[in-house]
Specification:
heterodimer; A: alpha+beta; 7 strands; about 20% helix; B: mainly beta; 4-stranded antiparallel β-sheet; about 45% strand
Chain lengths: ~110, ~280
């Protein structure tokens, strides 16, 4: 009986820990380097690293043009596509940020 | 005889008013929480932020730079900003003016997301009334895009106020906390002065807005004097939107400048926003 209670308590604590990690909001912003490349920087509202977070560059039909991941310095640079595009910052379920290329400035 | 009495009264009033309104090194930019990277404009003025009092001459700053930090595992970057300084005459509404500096910084300096710790070490100011020098090492922290960096870390300045809350992300009605350090160590019961920036600097005119936002009941509300606690921690309320200056006084170890006493102070500016 005691053991069952202990398992419940551990499960409960793990759930709290897991939900806590999702409390941090993802952050991503991109800018035009002026040399036909675009740089995106990522992070989280607690200052956490975005290293390894997947980035998709998609066209208006949803087709992936370029894909990659945030570097150890939480940044990703790609060649500027010739068409309008969206940057998707895939920081987990419910934590995707999409940036319209028309909002990316020098 | 009557003239002499009037002069005497006038001089007493002048002394009282000069001691009741604190000198504050300002490192001003209109906004602290930027949605995206952009050009920023700055005014470096040595003045009395609440009362629109007389400005004081600034010599060429010893240092003016920014430390950019955008989070875990990313090295911070220091950029010297002295080349952007432009000497100006800054005037108050009584037409009193003093030398000050402005800086229009290109977007490239604040283009990335993260925290930007702006630091100003002014040259020491000679305060004739007290026959001593004052040097206020000043920090203003702004942020781009909401990604926090090392806003809560000391920058290794000889004296500094280190935030315990983000200085750029405060709602009106909240509180702001910080620790006063001298040579990296907390200063128990440090003497603190607080002033609200009651007259906004008008950057395009090199003057202060002659209209204040609030009227104090009396002088205790102009420069609010408090003490840090035994751990060197300070906590202030933020009842109104705008900039609040916190100054920790006399943090020096008996340093001299030009063979005179040097009061080494630390200033931190905090921005509050309406909900």
């Amino acid at each position: 009986m005691k053991e069952a209670l202990m398992y419940k308590l551990i499960t409960f604590l793990l759930l709290i820990a897991a939900s806590h990690s999702y409390a941090h909001s993802p952050i991503c912003d991109c800018y035009d380097n002026g040399d036909e490349t675009i740089s995106c920087e990522g992070g989280f509202s607690d200052g956490g690293s975005a290293a390894g977070i997947e980035i998709h560059i998609i066209d208006q039909s949803g087709k992936i043009l370029i894909q990659g991941e945030m570097s150890e310095y939480s940044e990703y640079t790609f060649d500027k596509p010739a068409v309008d595009y969206w940057v998707q910052y895939l920081a987990g379920e419910g934590h995707t940020i999409e940036i319209d290329s028309r909002d990316i400035e020098y | 005889m009557r003239k002499t009495v009037n002069y005497f009264i006038a001089s007493i009033i002048m002394v009282l008013s000069s001691t009741s309104h604190a000198h504050f090194q300002m490192l001003y930019t209109p906004d602290a929480a930027l949605a995206k990277g952009q050009e920023t404009s700055w005014a470096l003025i040595f003045s009395h932020p609440f009362s629109n009092g007389y400005p004081m001459d600034m010599g060429e700053p010893e240092a003016f730079y920014v430390v950019h930090d955008r989070g875990e595992d990313i090295p911070n970057k220091t950029t010297d900003l002295k080349k952007h300084l432009e000497a100006v005459q800054w005037t108050n509404s009584d037409n009193e003016s003093a030398s000050a500096f402005v800086a229009n910084l290109p977007k490239s300096i604040t283009r990335s997301i993260g925290d930007y710790n702006f630091v100003l070490t002014p040259s020491p100011y000679y305060e004739a009334e007290e026959d001593k020098y004052i040097q206020q090492i000043t920090k203003t922290v702004i942020n781009v895009g909401g990604a926090p960096g090392a806003w809560d870390q000391p920058l290794g300045l000889p004296v500094e106020i280190v935030p315990l809350d983000k200085p750029y992300a405060n709602w009106v009605g909240g509180v702001f906390r910080a620790v006063v350090l001298s040579n990296g160590k907390p200063v128990p019961h440090a003497e603190i002065e607080i002033e609200y920036l009651n007259h906004d600097p008008l950057l395009e005119k090199n003057t202060f807005d002659p209209v204040g936002k609030v009227t104090p009941p009396q002088d205790s509300f102009v420069t609010m004097s408090i003490r840090a606690n035994a751990q060197g921690e300070v906590m202030i309320g933020l009842p109104k939107a705008g900039w609040w200056g916190i100054c920790a006084l006399d943090l020096d170890d008996g340093q001299l400048y030009n063979k005179k006493e040097l009061s080494l102070d630390a200033v931190l500016w905090v921005r509050a926003y309406d909900m």
